[in-house]
Structures are given as C-alpha cells and as structure tokens.
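Usage example:
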Amino acid sequence: MSIHPILQIEGLSLAAKSKETLVNNVSFSLGKGESLGLVGESGSGKSLTLRAILGLLPRGVTQTGGMIKSGASSAMVFQDPRGALDPLCPVVNQLAEVVYYRQQVNRKASRIIALELLERLGLPDSLKRSDRYPSQLSGGQCQRVVIAMALACKPGILLCDEPTTALDVTVQRQIIDTITDLQHELGFAMVFVTHNLAIAANLCSRLYVMKAGRIVEHGDTLDLLQNPTDPYTQMLIDSVLPVPELEGSGA
Ligand SMILES: Nc1ncnc2c1ncn2[C@@H]1O[C@H](COP(=O)(O)OP(=O)(O)OP(=O)(O)O)[C@@H](O)[C@H]1O
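Running the assembly step on the lines above writes:
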C-alpha cells in the first residue's frame, strides 16, 4: 500500500445488467508518480477496472460495491489508437480541441500548445498541418497523438489500457520509452494494463495479477516474478516464450 496514495480503490465490484459479476472486490492504491501494473488474461476485468477509475463504465455495467477515491485527475490512453481518434477531423485540430476545453485557454493558445505537444511526442512537422487526418498516420503515430491528448489533460494519473498491443514490436518499444521519459519529466502516476509481463516488468514497480475479475496475487514486480505464489501467476510467467539461444552465437 502507498503511504500517501493519490488513488485508492477498496473492494471495487462491477456487474453486468444480467447481474453477472465482472470485477469482484478489487483493492489497490497508487502513490504519486508510481507505476502499477494490472496483468492477466483477456477478459479478466483489467479494462473495466480502468474505466471505473475514469468514471466511464460502458453501457450495461454498473458499480455494485466498493469505493474509488482519487486525489488527482485521470486521463486514459486506449488500446486502439485509431479508434480513439475522429477520422473526419485533422489530428492537430483534435488535439487543440482537447487543450481548449481541458486547459481553458483561448483558441490561439490551444493551437500553440497542441503544436508543442506534437513536437514533444516526436511527431513529424507535417502533422502540424490542418490537412492531416488519422488515416494518413501510422499506428504508432496515432498512438503518440492519443498520448498527447491524454497529456493535454495534465493528468496526475495516466491510465494506459494496453496502449502498445496493436503496434509492431519495434514501435511498441518506442512508445514504452516515450511514456517512461514523459513520466520522469512530468511526474504523473500510472496504472498500466497489459497481458505482456515483460512490458509490465519494465514499467511498473508493483504488479497486480487479475483472473476472472479478482486480484489473485500482488507484490513488488521483481519479487512477484521471481517468487510467484499463485499457480495462475506461475502459469502467466511460464507462458512467456524464451528467445532460443542462437546456434554459433558464441554465447
Ligand atoms: N459492456 C459490457 N457488458 C457486459 N459485459 C462486459 C461489458 N464490457 C466487458 N464485459 C465483460 O467483462 C469482463 C471483463 O472485461 P474487460 O474488458 O475488463 O477484460 P480485460 O481483462 O481488459 O480483457 P482484454 O485484455 O481482452 O482487454 C469480460 O468477461 C467481458 O466480456
């Protein structure tokens, strides 16, 4: 548990309209600037937990128990970057719109801040023009724009829902490095959802393992990966394929 948490979740339970429990008695806390990983198989309730923190549960899902206490604003980076952008609006305009509403500056200032954010995220100058639409960007570029949008909200907590799953491995690495650099620079805390243990291990100091809506194990990342006590955590670790030693590599 964090000593001075900026996010506290206690006994969170979520259910579908059919009364089926989807998230069951989930508790964790997050300290300022800390990174916490939620890992587990598909359908284990990771995304719904993030959405509950953001206050954006999908239609048909309700909170049936527990409480969420947050001392900072949250912003979310979604799994499908292209789907998170409006295909009919130039990317720079979309970003400027978020700045305008969230930072409450005038239109001219919001555009200047949007251009600075695009630069900070390492996007090419061509994207600053108003004739560039999401369909003209690569998946990695779209994800950088989505991250810029989240940062435009000046979040104290960045909620990342498998932000690299839809990207190829080299781009995944670049995006992870970008998020790490930005976190060091801006100091936001992060809840990072992934089913990729290697990514979670690189980014997060603590891991929570979810299965069928429940937390089955949690702990400091290295300790948990080296000494898992729950068979499901062990199974997740065992399912990571090792890179075979290359013949004649001299290793
Ligand atoms: N709107 C909804 N109505 C009913 N059930 C839902 C709804 N959204 C999600 N669920 C169910 O809730 C459970 C948890 O879903 P969730 O999206 O949180 O899983 P996840 O761990 O994030 O999976 P993934 O890694 O595939 O994104 C799943 O069984 C899913 O089918």
